Amino acid sequence: MEMKMYRESADFLQKKLPFRAKIGIILGSGLGALADKIEEATIIPYSEIPHFAHSTAIGHKGNFICGKLANIPVIAMQGRFHYYEGYSMEQVTFPVRVMKLIGVETLFVSNAAGGINNNFRVGDLMIIRDHINNLPNPLIGPNKEEFGVRFPDMTRAYDRALIASAERIAQEENIEVKKGVYVGLTGPSYETPAEYRFYQLGGGDAIGMSTVPEVLVARHAGIRVFGMSVITNEGWHFEGDYTNDAQEVIDAANKASERMGKIFTRLIQEII
Ligand code: HPA
After folding, report:
1. Which of 59, 65, 135, 240 is the most exposed place for a label (fewest CB within 10 A)?
2. 123: left (phi over 0), alpha (psi -120 to 50) or beta
3. How many CA atoms lie within 13 A of 195 on its CB side?
């Protein structure tokens, strides 16, 4: 992708938007319901935006929703692009750079994930405190100096102040939250019991097929990041006769939506 393409998309988007938003949100499985809470919404389908890919994953739509959440201007992605859909890593992360160009400074990300920590149960919320990347790195290739440096630091990929605030908010709201390491891999197959065990032994707490690419590109561009996972299935039952079902994953994510949305919304109010 050339710089010109990012700029053309950003210019197109900016002309359609009623106001500037410093906060970007990627509504993955688990945060879909937050879209309905956005007021004065302007909806821009990805299909209208130059150079954008189209979202095909089940449970995902394909729009930017720009509007106000608790009176704060936000730009939200309703649906994201996954590597397993066949997109290049540049396509997967394209919207993050476009958000950077239109002025986004903080990015909120969410996803559905399999719990690989023995203490995690379906329906739990997990604040992402770090990640392990098992997808191709989206920053491979000539470095785009306009966005960031060749070798970006990832020691604090997930903003510590935002994590601390989220923990406090969760406590105030009586919402139980876990905290842990998200393992990102390509999918689309779910993991075998041996793989779940492997990633658990490697330090993971939850495992999924998204988020890490967007976070890497956001951090490269100096965007602050906060992320949460909904635990939609339990991968830590290494033995036993369980199976993973995509519809059950989506149902579990939808159930957690309200709680996660509350934490996101209050965090957003505190940032401004
Ligand atoms: N593995 C990978 N991705 C997922 C899972 C899982 O168990 N659950 C939800 N997304």
Report:
1. 240
2. left
3. 13
Question: pLDDT tens per residue, the chain (272 residues)?
Answer: 889 999 999 999 999 998 899 999 999 876 778 888 999 999 999 999 999 986 565 555 789 999 999 999 999 999 899 999 999 999 999 999 999 999 999 999 999 999 999 999 999 999 999 999 999 999 999 999 999 999 999 999 999 999 999 999 999 999 999 999 999 999 999 999 999 999 999 999 999 999 999 999 999 999 999 999 999 998 888 676 777 777 777 777 777 888 999 999 999 999 86
- Report the nearest atom of ligand 1 relative to the CA of 191: 1
Using the mean position of ligand 1's atoms as its centre, give its distance from the Cα of residue 105 in Å: 29
**Integer Cα distance of 247 and 151 in angstroms:** 39
Coil, helix or strand at residue 258: helix
User: What is the C-alpha separation between 212 and 219, in angstroms, rounded?
Assistant: 10
The answer to whether the annotation marks 131 as part of a ligand binding site is no
Domain positions in the chain:
3-269
In this structure, which residue's CA is closest to atom 2 in ligand 1? 208
Question: In CATH, what is the architecture of 3-269?
Answer: 3-Layer(aba) Sandwich (3.40)
Query: How many Å lie between the centroid of ligand 1 and the Cα of residue 153?
Result: 27
CB of 211 closer than 6 angstroms to any ligand 1 atom? no
